[in-house]
Write a structure and sequence with these properties.
It is a single chain. The protein has about 400 residues and is mainly α. It has one domain: A middle domain of Talin 1. Helices cover about 60% and strands about 0% of the residues. The chain has a two-stranded antiparallel ribbon. Helix 4 runs antiparallel to helix 7, helix 4 packs parallel to helix 13 and helix 12 packs antiparallel against helix 17. The radius of gyration is 21 Å and the shape is globular.
Length: about 400
């Protein structure tokens, strides 16, 4: 079992960035009136939140359209599961959706975030949508194989566990590494011989992917409705933080934004790069390439490139005018820090683009120094965010503060 799976299973399910931060000992809260701050919304704060909300709503609208195309491709695949053209079209459509979602990974606040009590890892307004869409690194290919044998997907996936649905499951189904099962020798489908008895594996994979596509559409529609003025109207709750009900203060909304931005630290630096290249105590070997993201599509570099677009959106907002965290920093006279944050973000982007292959397993084998250099640049960017920006904006990280590297 990959070490990433062991770690996230220990956290329970569903798992979001908020839960990861709490598991690492991170607590975050903007200054309250008791700390000498103010609970009154500011014009700069409203401008920043409005520009970030525009990123979310634009992203979600694009996802709705892309998922519709993916479902069309999965329908065609279900009708001709061994047709190379149908397989290729489904893979391309999946990649288009995955690219968009990797940007949206940075929007794990509000409805995309985890439900439950805030002090126990829940996001204010959280509805667990992220994990239904994409649960990585909480994945289990063996469970997918077991579902294929049992055909449990035929009844729909609305009640399925997060590692039995979503984009990561579709990836495994339409980029299958082989006809061999991913289960170990003691799994029931191996011991009982039911996997070896399957005679229609391509058809089952295609039908499962089709069902997962329908479920994915429902989750993305749920996310769009939650933010829409005609639905949950979370956009108003977010942009008018302090005046409505979800966020008692504008500061709480920025707690959520900073938590989302820390994906750069805990998920990209530590999980997507640090763990596979052996710079994590969770890797018991010199390196752990089996923990790279997108083991089957082999596009782990591409995922990080799209992640960095999501990070940039939180930093500068979306729209014609500059927004995001930069607006807040400039408003308090920390323009130099805003510039440093943007410049280091560009350095990290350049380091990712310089990697010579989309499959980071191959990069680790051929040029490990480039990944170690990327990890160092990510560490610099993470420090700017979780130390300098946090201090400048009056956001308090607990003594855990993430890692110490």
């Amino acid at each position: 079992m990959p070490s990433s799976t062991r770690f996230f299973q220990s956290l329970g399910s569903p798992t979001t960035l908020t839960a990861v931060l709490l598991a690492l000992g991170v607590a975050y809260a903007c200054d309250s009136e008791e700390d000498g701050g103010s609970n009154d919304p500011t014009a700069a704060g409203t401008e920043a939140l409005t520009s970030i909300a525009a990123c979310v709503t634009t992203s979600t609208s694009s996802l709705v359209d892309a998922v519709a195309l993916l479902n069309d491709a999965l329908d065609d695949l279900a009708a001709a599961p061994e047709d190379d053209a149908a397989v290729g079209a489904a893979q391309t459509a999946w990649q288009d959706v995955q690219d968009l979602w990797q940007v949206a990974e940075f929007y794990q606040f509000g409805p995309a975030g985890r439900s439950g009590e805030y002090d126990k890892g829940g996001a204010l307004g959280g509805q667990d949508i992220r994990d239904k869409v994409y649960s990585w690194p909480l994945v289990n290919a063996c469970r997918v194989d077991q579902n294929l044998v049992r055909e449990s997907y035929l009844d729909g996936l609305s009640e399925a566990s997060v590692n039995s649905r979503g984009l990561d499951v579709i990836e495994y189904l339409i980029f299958p590494p082989s006809d061999e099962s991913s289960c170990g020798p003691i799994a029931d489908i191996i011991v009982e011989g039911t996997w070896d008895e399957l005679e229609n594996l391509p058809e089952r994979r295609a039908l499962y992917a089709q069902a997962a596509g329908v479920d994915l559409k429902n989750s993305i529609d749920e996310l769009q409705t939650a933010w829409s003025a005609d639905g949950g109207n979370f956009e108003a709750e977010f942009t008018q933080a302090g005046d409505l009900t979800v966020y008692e203060t504008q500061a709480e909304a920025f707690d959520a934004v900073v938590s989302a931005a820390l994906y750069i630290d805990t998920l990209i630096k530590d999980q997507k790069i640090g763990l596979p290249i052996g710079r994590s105590e969770l890797c018991a070997s010199a390196t752990c390439p089996e923990d790279f993201e997108h083991q089957f599509a082999k596009t782990s570099r591409n995922a990080i490139q799209n992640n960095l677009d999501g990070f940039s959106n939180l930093v500068t907002g979306c729209g014609e005018e500059e927004g995001g965290l930069v607006v807040l920093l400039k408003d308090i006279g920390a323009g130099a820090l805003a510039t440093s944050l943007q410049e280091q973000g560009s350095v990290v982007k350049d380091a990712v683009e310089a990697l010579e292959d989309d499959n980071l397993i191959d990069v680790l084998a051929d040029d490990p120094d480039s990944l170690n250099s990327l990890h160092d640049e990510l560490r610099t960017l993470s420090t700017l965010l979780k130390v300098d920006v946090v201090d400048a904006l009056g956001i308090n990280l607990g003594s855990g503060g993430g890692d110490n590297d």
